[in-house]
Amino acid sequence: MDILFAPTHSLLLSMILPFLAVFGIIVLDRRPNLREAVSIGISMIVIVLVFNLYRQFKAGGTVELSLFEILPGFAIAFKLEALGMLFALVAAGLWLVTIVYAIGYMRSHHEENQTRFYACFAIAIGSVLGIAYSANLFTLFVFYEVLTLSTYPLVTHAGTPEAKRGGRTYLGILLGTSIVFFLFAIIGTAVIAGTLDFRAGGIFPEGTPTAIPSLLLLLFVFGVGKAAIMPFHRWLPPAMVAPTPVSALLHAVAVVKAGVFTLLKIGVFIFGLDLMNTLTTTDILLYLAGASVLIASVIAMRQDNLKKRLAYSTVSQLSYITAGMLLATEAGIIGGAMHIAMHAFGKITLFFCAGAILVSLHKTRVSELRGIGWQMPITMLAFLIGTISIIGLPPGGGTWSKWYLLTGALDADQIAIMGVLMVSSLLNIVYLMPIPVLAFMPVAKEGEARPSVQEAPWPSLLALSFTALMCLFLFVYPQPLFQLASAIVN
Which terminus of the chain has fewer Cβ atoms in its 10 Å neighbourhood, N or C? Predict the structure, then answer.
């Protein structure tokens, strides 16, 4: 048992098992109960393995693994650090929850190609864990691209012309930004720094002219298209044509979180906070992130389609994390790292609720949701909890991440960014809070019976209830996340 759960074995197995699960899922195509059992079983094992890594990490152990070197300086290698540990815990935990939700959603909605869905989902999670454990930029880039390619079939799952258009936009922007910006930034870093390894404090040698890392920072921020900073956010709203479990994957578990995780890791371990504070492009990009926060919030207010409203909300919330990195303060990094988890649980709850409404009541527009709280009381209560967390109000977990982001802006003397964060929270209230409020408005006339309860299938209801409770739990007990986030900069 000790050999099986050695840290390096846990790290390697937690990455490999999701890829191996694909074979079981495909073989059991005609036996859906067993097919889903494979997904659930493997995801549970991955959670155990990742938790074992967390236990080792807390005890002060180091986990490093180098598989092979393609060229000198370009190795596939892994090393566990605090930010990667935090991301791995979020991804592994929410994989299981999303599978449970998907079983109820996909079957009730009579979705086709369910085997392909579960197989691509597993590949995406394996890729995310590879990103989380990456010891260098080359390894991260490889898994980053695998994640893009594995999620494309999920975006185009419906096979409709709209889904295909959304998929082309998705693939075009994410691959385009990777090749044009991200790859050139990696090559430039290798040439200037002589290494691609992630190191605390950064890797650029002393005496490097600041113009060079300033340009590289610009390339990295625009190259990591999954972080959806404007104007490279346009792939995200069209991707909402995908089934709701895919939207949850895009917004909470994998894709966008891989983007902002990558930016945080580059900021801390490639540039370092000291160097970031000297670069001319840091403030420019910080104000661009602030503009993305506000513009996306305003656009969200105008969306009647519920999933598109939530999509633009995600664009806004991602820029919180990008801003946390660009503030280049300890509190900003802590706030950004914590927001990866807080936003994940809050936003996945909202998307789960949107899917439940579609499956049960066949409604997709905000203007249609008045009074549905009487038919779906658990779902809309969960939506309220997720909304509170996204806004950053007690007792939602998002309170703490936004607190540290505000503190980071204050530490950096960025009063304008503090204002952006506060105004954005008010805009969050405007475009999110009316939804649960209207849901519990009376619809029956006096003397008439209220509509009967019509909740989503129990697997979906169980999943959204769990994520909503986690939003509350992370307010009461945020210490493990805070400790991991603090360890990134200390």
Answer: N
Radius of gyration of the chain (CA): 22
Q: How many CB atoms lie within 10 A of CB 405?
A: 28
d(CA 252, CA 345): 7
Distance CA 411, CA 415 (A): 9
**Bridge partners, residue 268, by sequence:** none
Angle in degrees, CA 479, 420, 398, rounded to 5: 25
Q: How far apart are CA 312 and CA 10, in angstroms?
A: 37
Question: Which residues have a Cβ under 8 Å from the Cβ of 406 and sit 6 or more positions away?
Answer: 335, 418, 421, 422
Q: Facing residues of 66 across strands?
A: 77
Quick: pLDDT tens for 236-288. 888 877 778 877 777 677 888 999 999 999 999 999 999 999 998 999 999 99
**Tens digits of residue pLDDT in 429-471:** 999 999 999 998 877 566 566 678 888 888 999 999 999 999 9
pLDDT tens, residue by residue, 89-108: 999 999 999 999 989 888 87
Contact 146, 134 (CB under 8 A): no
- Mean local confidence (pLDDT), 388-406: 95
b/e map of 76-98 (b: 16 or more CB within 10 Å)? bbbbbbbbbbbbbbbbbbbbbbb
Residues 90/341, Cβ–Cβ less than 8 Å: yes
pLDDT by residue (tens digit) across 156-181? 887 788 888 988 998 999 999 999 99
Mean pLDDT, rounded, of the chain: 91
User: For residues 326 and 261, what is the distance between their CA atoms, to the nearest angstrom?
Assistant: 13
- H or E element that contains 264: helix 255-266
- Encode 414-452: b = buried (16+ Cβ within 10 Å), e = exposed: beebbebbeebbebbbebbbebbebbbeeeeeeeeeeee
Q: What is the pLDDT of residue 2?
A: 45
Backbone angles phi, psi at 74, to 5 degrees: -125, 85
> What does the alpha-carbon distance between residue 251 and residue 236 come to, in Å, rounded to a whole number?
9
Task: Give the residue ranges of DSSP H helices in 328-457.
Answer: 330-361, 377-391, 398-411, 415-432, 434-439
3-state DSSP helix/strand/coil % of the chain, to nearest 5: 75, 5, 20
* Residue 66: φ, ψ to 5°: -115, 120
